[in-house]
Records
---
Amino acid sequence: MVATCRRSSTIQGSGAGIVITSPQGEDLEFAIKFGFKASNNEAEYEALVAGMKMTHEAGARHLLAYSDSQLVVKQVEGIYEATNKSMVQYLQQIAELRTSFESFQVIQIPREENAKADCLSRLASALEDCRTRHITIQYLPNPRAALVIQAISSPTD
């Protein structure tokens, strides 16, 4: 499974967007609203941890995670050292979670390639209070009025 992680912060708060792609190419999309203040780096880590937990719970044995955060990717790879206490704690969680997978890799991607997760994170960040809300988003390819007009004007048998 492949997971892309993204975070966003707005005046209303912060959140994360996660896109999990199954081996068959099916995307599962999640918007997570944080009930706490998070720095950009903390939000990036929250997104990665959540994505790892979700893919593990879905039964994934191999995980390729993408993030547009250079700092998070380099810290997870061990190239950069984490000195901030909360970053160290996130890295400990990730180290523990990565043992649940036969293989785990995190790759940095350009922000432009993280558009789906970015959109989801902005949606989550913009929500005022969603503790008891479930939101279904539906795609409408054509206006309903055009469909009605077409049905009314088509000849009947």
---
Amino acid sequence: MEVEDMDEKEVEITEENPSPLVPPSSSSGHFKLFDKMELLEFKDKYIIKALDSSQQGFSISRFDGDIQPLNSGDSLGTPDKTSTIFGVIGTIRLIAGMHLLVITSSKEVGKYLGFPVFHVQSIKYLPCYKALKQLSPKEKKDEAYFRNLLRVVESTPGLYYSYETDITLNLQRRSSLAPGWISRPIWK
């Protein structure tokens, strides 16, 4: 296997002179990533929508975790609680059902290839199930154990993210990827 010496090449990567290895900004495509969103908590669902575009977002059922995009004709009503979030980490299915994990606080800590990198200060998991009463005692015990693990994740420092670039790949790995992959939006 041949290894190329990176010291022989000078590569300057700045915001004014981006690398061809860096995916284009998400704002250049049709899909826009939002760095601040509004979390609306209702008795039957959670709604996550963009602060600057009230019809862009999704709802997730508190009973079964079903995720649906917001429709322009949806009447939202008055939520029980409203808060600002900075991202959706994803969903996780435990024994009783689905949980939605959201970033409730973050801080910009630096730049990677000219793109801002954020440190997650706090996360929150939102239960999306109604089946806890139907679980056996053993399943309830297992569910409590897994929920405690989620609480540990909530309090564990060290989660970083970027809205605009993949921070899991180093420059050497990026250079070996197919050109089509590099041009894909970060959310894909």
---
Amino acid sequence: MLNNVKIRERDRYELYTASQMNNRVQVYAVGQYISMSPDKARRVIDQIRGRSYEEALMILELMPYRACYPIFKLIYSAAANASHNKSFNKGDLIISKAEVNKGTNRKKLKPRARGRSYLIKKPTCHITIVVKNITYLKEWIRLMKTGSIKERQEVLSDMTKRRSGIIVYNSQKDELEVI
């Protein structure tokens, strides 16, 4: 596909470094063929998306839905992957991406009277949890607040080259936020 599109070598290198940078700070866990409706799982996932690791675990423990337990296990697994494989601190993790996709339907036959049978469809779903380490963002914001003008310009030019985030300046609080 890249052969059909004309991309300069510099742009190809920048795209590669941006994806490489995301791989350094992201860890994921996937649960497939979980026996529940995707709509019921999305109801829980929407509550924890974008929250910190500890806050998400507390929310899941207190929610009264059956979908909470498999999602709790996936978040715990993603954090364990992050701490074991990449040596991240669990306190610095946020849930950057959480999605639920529809899986296959398991089909069973329920016997009825006079030799007939009814089809029972049990839906399944695939859940993907991506956690991101935010320590580099904290250091970057600290540098932007305390650094000299030249250092700030270097960091901003590096960010625009890598296309790794959107910078929002809040003039009322005098803060920089990265989205």
---
Amino acid sequence: MAMTMMRSSLQRVSSQIHHSKSVISRTSAFSSKVSDRIVKLSAVDPDGQKREVLGLTGQTLLKALTNSGLIDPASHRLEDIDACSSECEVSIAQEWLERLPPRSYDEEYVLKRNSRARVLNKHSRLGCQVVLTHDLQGMVVAVPEPKPWDIP
């Protein structure tokens, strides 16, 4: 009986040590992976100033532009295409267009619906629909002036 209790205690301690090592391993792996996920972009603001923007792979372009202060977070509360009113519309430099996946039907619909001319500009993309990848490292985007109805 005493031997069984001792064996049980050893198994618990061993399990706790293994769990602690696993947590430490995952934590340090996560720390090193964050720096591996950084994507550096250039954004031209409405005043024509080029600014460096940092984002993470898997994050939307909208999130990166919002975090850097180029798009007001209140102007685009949701990253859901069904709720999008195109306040996150950006222009992508020509040389980067081919590296992006094509626009979805929904993205094209939102862009056309909110365009005054109802014509689709080939450089226009919704920041909420562009997901950052390492292939987009160095991409140049232009952030247009807020639309008159977006200005308080």
